[in-house]
């Protein structure tokens, strides 16, 4: 087989490169013909070509042109390329070459995982443009750079998971991460201080889909879980199934009991129906007493109130006098 025949073979099926002799697997023209048909065939190239910058750059430029370039902008591809560049086979020397890595992360920021360059701001920013979670592979110094982290979480709220502890407490960073309703659930990656931030919890619950709401409720602090506003919005989306998740101590809160008294009794957890019923009976008795008093003439209501107030003062004075005598 001559070179022309080898090129014709791999141009039809790049994977056939692995059937050729070492001579052809070390030939740039043959290898480039193979990878243009099937980029994964680069695995079968010689070790020498795995370390050849011209070949690797050509492969990267080819992949960038067919998969992520629309003529004007690099398109976010995340980790969804149909055929991934076999980066494991690129030499370690080239993985530490900034020019090579810049070209690679323009295709897919996830390729930053293979780089030995973790502290270069330009490279990190280029990577997170296409894959925000590439922040995972940055150095600790970069993960604590607010300007870079803001770019990452704006591209993908999930990148908040990889921010430094300090920036996970930064309200601007967290708000940017959860700005997209589809990423609002990423608040669970924020610092625990946001568990007790009622405004933030309410904002997230109001924006995400019902499937993710329970995760946010579980993330919230006990105080937020027992907030009547949180309970109302959770009940509106999850119905009676949610009510079993409310902390038991919440059912001693008059605001919650008052709300529970107005929803269908069948929705109430069986173990708390007694408390709600007792509360409703108490309110009903108070209401009837109030109605009977309001039915009396105003002059009589005033006299009764004055009388009861006077008796109360007399009892108080009597107790004080008794206490003084004892002394």
Features:
elongated, 327 residues, 58% helix
3D architecture notes:
This protein has 327 residues and is mainly alpha-helical. Among the domains are: 148-225; 239-294, no CATH class. Helices cover 58% and strands 0% of the residues. The protein contains 20 helices and no strands. The chain has helices at residues 3-12, 22-25, 28-37, 47-50, 53-67, 92-95, 98-107, 121-130, 140-143, 146-155, 165-168, 171-177, 198-205, 210-219, 222-225, 228-238, 240-243, 254-260, 270-294, 298-326. The longest helix has 29 residues, at 298-326. The radius of gyration is 35 Å and the shape is elongated. Mean pLDDT is 83; it is low at 67-83.
Structural class per helix/strand content? Answer: mainly alpha
Task: Report the β-strand fraction as a percent range.
Answer: under 5%
The poorly predicted ranges are 67-83
Number of strands: 0
Please compute the radius of gyration using only Cα atoms. Answer: 35 Å
Order of helices and strands: HHHHHHHHHHHHHHHHHHHH
């Amino acid at each position: 087989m001559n070179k022309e025949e080898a090129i014709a073979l791999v141009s039809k099926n790049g994977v056939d490169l692995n059937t050729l002799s070492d001579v052809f697997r070390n030939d740039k023209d043959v290898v480039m013909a193979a990878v243009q048909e099937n980029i994964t065939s680069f695995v079968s190239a010689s070790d020498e070509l795995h370390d050849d910058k011209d070949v690797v750059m050509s492969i990267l430029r080819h992949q960038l042109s067919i998969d992520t370039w629309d003529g004007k902008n690099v398109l976010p591809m995340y980790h969804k390329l149909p055929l991934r560049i076999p980066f494991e086979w690129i030499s370690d020397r080239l993985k530490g070459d900034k020019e090579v890595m810049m070209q690679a992360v323009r295709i897919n920021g996830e390729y930053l995982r293979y780089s030995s360059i973790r502290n270069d701001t330009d490279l990190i920013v280029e990577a997170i443009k296409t894959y925000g979670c590439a922040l995972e592979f940055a150095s600790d110094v970069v993960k604590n750079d607010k300007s870079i982290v803001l770019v990452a979480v704006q591209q993908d709220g999930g990148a908040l998971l990889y921010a430094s502890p300090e920036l996970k407490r930064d309200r601007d960073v967290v708000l940017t991460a959860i700005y997209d309703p589809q990423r609002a659930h990423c608040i669970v990656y924020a610092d625990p201080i946001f568990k007790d931030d009622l405004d933030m919890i309410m904002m997230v619950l109001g924006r995400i889909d019902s499937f993710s709401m329970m995760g946010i409720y579980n993330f919230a602090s006990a105080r937020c879980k027992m907030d009547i506003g949180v309970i109302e919005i959770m009940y509106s989306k999850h119905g009676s199934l949610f009510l079993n998740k409310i902390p038991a101590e919440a059912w001693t809160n008059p605001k919650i009991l008052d709300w529970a008294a107005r929803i269908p009794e069948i929705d109430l957890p069986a173990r708390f129906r007694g408390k709600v019923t007792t509360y409703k009976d108490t309110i009903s008795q108070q209401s009837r007493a109030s109605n009977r008093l309001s039915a009396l003439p105003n002059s009589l209501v005033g006299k009764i109130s004055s009388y009861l107030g006077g008796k109360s003062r007399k009892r108080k004075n009597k107790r004080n006098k008794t206490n003084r005598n004892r002394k």
